[in-house]
Amino acid sequence: MTAKPESPDVEPLWRELAGKAIRSERTKQGRTLGDVSERAGISPQYLSEVERGLKEPSSEMLASICGALGLRLVDLLRAGDRQLTGRRLRAVSPPATRPSGPVLLAA
C-alpha cells in the first residue's frame, strides 16, 4: 500500500498523527516493533498498522502502547500538536447552498 501524499491544506487524521508520534518515539529509543508490542501486549503487526495510521486504536490500546514506550497519553497529544504547529490549515466552510424543500431525517 502506498502512502497518500500529504497536502498542506488537509488536516491529518488523529490516527495518522498518533501513529507518527509513536513511531518517532519508538525509533528514537532504538526499540523494535517486536519489543514494544510485546511489552504493550499487542501483536507487532497491529503496532505497525497503528504507526502507519491504518488502525484507529482505542484509548486503552494507546495507553498500553504509551506505557510500553514510557510515555503518558498527554505526551502523545503534545507530539500530535507539535506536528500540526506551523501547518496552514484551510477552514472548513459550510456548503454554499441550502437544500430546497423539506429535509427528511432518518433515525
TrEMBL record:
<dbReference type="GO" id="GO:0003677">
    <property type="term" value="F:DNA binding"/>
</dbReference>
<dbReference type="InterPro" id="IPR001387">
    <property type="entry name" value="Cro/C1-type_HTH"/>
</dbReference>
<protein>
    <recommendedName>
        <fullName>HTH cro/C1-type domain-containing protein</fullName>
    </recommendedName>
</protein>
<dbReference type="Pfam" id="PF01381">
    <property type="entry name" value="HTH_3"/>
</dbReference>
<dbReference type="InterPro" id="IPR010982">
    <property type="entry name" value="Lambda_DNA-bd_dom_sf"/>
</dbReference>
<feature type="domain" description="HTH cro/C1-type">
    <location>
        <begin position="22"/>
        <end position="76"/>
    </location>
</feature>
